[in-house]
Amino acid sequence: FDRLRFVAERAELGERREAIFAVSIPERPGSFREFCALLGDRNVTEFNYRYADSRTAHLFVGVEVTGARATAELLASFRKHRIEAHDLSDNEMAKLHVRHLVGGHAPAAEHEILYRFEFPERPGALMNFLKHMGSGWNISLFHYRNHGADVGRVLVGLQVPDKDRAAFRRFLKELGYDYADETRNPAYRLFLK
């Protein structure tokens, strides 16, 4: 049982049913939503992102595909929209190590709060989150990995100024997803803050 996740991941990649990309997008509120819109109704298997600088955001993205041609078409779509992207589907270091190491401290992520969410495991759940959120707050951390459960477990860092806290509470209520505030979690403070 300990090896089943590894076997399943390798089978998806080996059979070209999952593609892994390194993607660079502008670091500004709304660019993550614009990128997700390009994915359409494709099933996202993994998202890893951590704020690094004020100009460029680097995403580690896994997407369910129907074969090598679908991967090439998705890569061409990214480039058509001026998004720098690299196909890492055959990159051993990325598959074995980097996907688990994306992150780190982000002292420049001002007013950051950290929340853990349970998204419904269905197409459109991420876009629903992003549409409810609006475009005023910057996402400074995003981690999701499909574990085959009925809910997706997502960790999100958001830069929400103190003056917007009431609006943020309204967003949480309107969204309707289960959540937990992890801002004071010692693991966050030691490894990600």
What would your notes on this structure say?
It is a single chain. The protein is α+β, with helices and mostly antiparallel strands and 193 residues long. 36% of the residues lie in helices and 31% in strands. The protein has seven helices and eight strands. The chain has helices spanning 4-14, 31-39, 68-80, 92-101, 125-133, 165-175, 186-191, and strands at 18-26, 44-50, 56-64, 84-87, 112-120, 138-145, 151-159, 178-181. The protein has an eight-stranded antiparallel sheet. The protein is globular and about 45 Å long. The mean pLDDT is 87.
Secondary structure layout plus pairing:
Elements: H1 4-14, E1 18-26, H2 31-39, E2 44-50, E3 56-64, H3 68-80, E4 84-87, H4 92-101, E5 112-120, H5 125-133, E6 138-145, E7 151-159, H6 165-175, E8 178-181, H7 186-191
Antiparallel strand pairs: 1-3, 1-4, 2-3, 2-6, 5-7, 5-8, 6-7
Helix pairs in contact: 2-5, 5-6
Number of helices: 7
Helix content: 25-40%
C-alpha geometry: globular
Provide the structure class. Answer: alpha+beta
Strand order of the largest sheet: 4-1-3-2-6-7-5-8
List the keywords.
single chain; 193 residues; alpha+beta; 8-stranded antiparallel sheet; 7 helices; 8 strands; globular
In brief, what are we looking at here?
The protein has 193 residues and is of the alpha+beta class. The chain is 36% helix and 31% strand.
